[in-house]
C-alpha cells in the first residue's frame, strides 16, 4: 500500500469545507460554542475521538478544524440519498461494523503513518449518551503512536435541519476539544484486557468533556484511571 497522500485530497476538501462553512452550517446546523482549539497539536499524526449524537457531529469537526482529517464512518453512509456523495468526495474510510474490518484498519494506519489525522466515533453508533466503545481507537493509537484528541459534542440532537425549523430557536451545538494524550510505549502491541483498559481510559477522557446526561456508561469517574495513557 502506497503512503497516504493528503495533497491528492487537499483542494477537494478545502472546497467542501468552504461549502460547509458558507452554505451547510448557516442553513442546517446551529453552533453556539467551540472551545479548546489550543489543545489541537499543530503537527504529527492525530486521532480526533468524538461522541456521536447526530449526523452533524463529524461535519462540525471537519469544518472547524484547520488540519486535514480523514474520517472513518460506517459503510452505509455511502448509500444515503443525496448526502451519500459527500463521504465519497471527502475520501471517508468506510467501515464494516459487523466485522473486524482489516481493510479499514490498514487504510487508517496508512493515514496516521503519513503524519496526518483521522476522525473516529468509537461507539460505532449514534446515541445521546455514551455507549460501551469498541477498541478501534486504542488499537490505532497504540499501533501508530498517534496522539488522541477527545472531542466532546453536545446539543446536536435534531440537526441537521433547515433553519426555519423551531429547533433553531433552541440551544445549538457545543464543542470542546480536550487535552491530547498518547498511549505509553509499553502498550504498543497491547491485546485483550489491556486493549479493553486502554479503551476505557480514553473514553473517560471524552466523558469528562460532556454534560452529565451524555456520559452514559462512563459517568462514574471513580472508575477512571490513567495507567496506559500520558497527557501531552
Give a topology summary.
Blueprint: H1 7-28, E1 31-35, E2 46-50, H2 56-64, E3 69-74, H3 85-90, E4 93-95, H4 102-113, E5 117-120, H5 136-144, E6 147-154, E7 173-177, E8 181-183, H6 192-207, E9 229-231
Parallel strand pairs: 1-7, 2-5, 2-6, 3-4, 3-5
Antiparallel strand pairs: 6-7, 8-9
Essential attributes:
232 residues; alpha/beta; Glycerol-3-phosphate (1)-acyltransferase; 7-stranded mixed beta sheet; two-stranded antiparallel sheet; 6 helices; 32% helix
What does this structure look like?
The chain is α/β, with parallel strands linked by helices and 232 residues long. It has one domain: Glycerol-3-phosphate (1)-acyltransferase, CATH 3.40.1130. It has helices at residues 7-28, 56-64, 85-90, 102-113, 136-144, 192-207; strands spanning 31-35, 46-50, 69-74, 93-95, 117-120, 147-154, 173-177, 181-183, 229-231. The strands form two sheets. It has a seven-stranded mixed beta sheet, sandwiched between helices. Strands 8-9 form a two-stranded antiparallel ribbon. α1 (7-28) crosses α2 (56-64). The longest helix has 22 residues, at 7-28. It is globular, with a radius of gyration of 17 Å. The model has no long low-confidence stretch (mean pLDDT 93).
Describe the structure concisely.
This protein has 232 residues and is of the alpha/beta class. It has six helices and nine strands. The mean pLDDT is 93.
Amino acid at each position: 500500500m502506497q503512503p497516504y497522500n493528503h495533497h491528492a485530497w487537499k483542494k477537494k476538501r478545502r472546497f467542501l469545507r468552504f461549502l460547509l462553512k458558507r452554505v451547510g452550517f448557516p442553513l442546517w446546523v446551529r453552533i453556539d460554542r467551540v472551545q479548546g482549539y489550543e489543545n489541537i497539536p499543530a503537527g504529527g499524526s492525530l486521532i480526533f475521538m468524538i461522541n456521536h449524537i447526530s449526523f452533524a457531529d463529524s461535519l462540525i469537526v471537519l469544518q472547524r478544524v484547520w488540519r486535514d482529517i480523514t474520517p472513518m464512518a460506517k459503510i452505509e453512509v455511502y448509500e444515503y440519498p443525496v448526502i451519500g456523495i459527500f463521504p465519497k468526495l471527502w475520501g471517508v474510510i468506510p467501515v464494516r461494523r459487523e466485522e473486524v474490518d482489516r481493510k479499514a484498519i490498514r487504510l487508517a494506519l496508512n493515514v496516521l503513518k503519513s503524519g496526518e489525522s483521522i476522525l473516529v466515533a468509537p461507539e460505532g453508533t449514534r446515541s445521546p449518551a455514551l455507549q460501551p466503545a469498541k477498541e478501534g481507537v486504542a488499537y490505532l493509537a497504540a499501533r501508530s503512536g498517534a496522539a488522541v484528541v477527545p472531542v466532546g459534542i453536545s446539543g446536536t440532537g435534531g440537526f441537521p435541519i433547515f433553519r426555519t425549523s423551531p429547533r433553531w430557536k433552541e440551544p445549538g451545538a457545543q464543542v470542546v476539544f480536550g487535552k491530547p494524550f498518547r498511549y505509553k510505549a509499553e502498550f504498543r502491541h497491547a491485546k485483550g484486557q489491556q486493549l479493553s483498559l486502554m479503551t476505557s481510559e480514553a473514553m473517560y477522557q471524552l466523558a469528562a468533556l460532556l454534560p452529565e446526561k451524555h456520559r452514559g456508561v462512563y459517568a462514574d469517574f471513580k472508575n477512571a484511571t490513567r495507567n496506559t495513557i500520558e497527557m501531552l
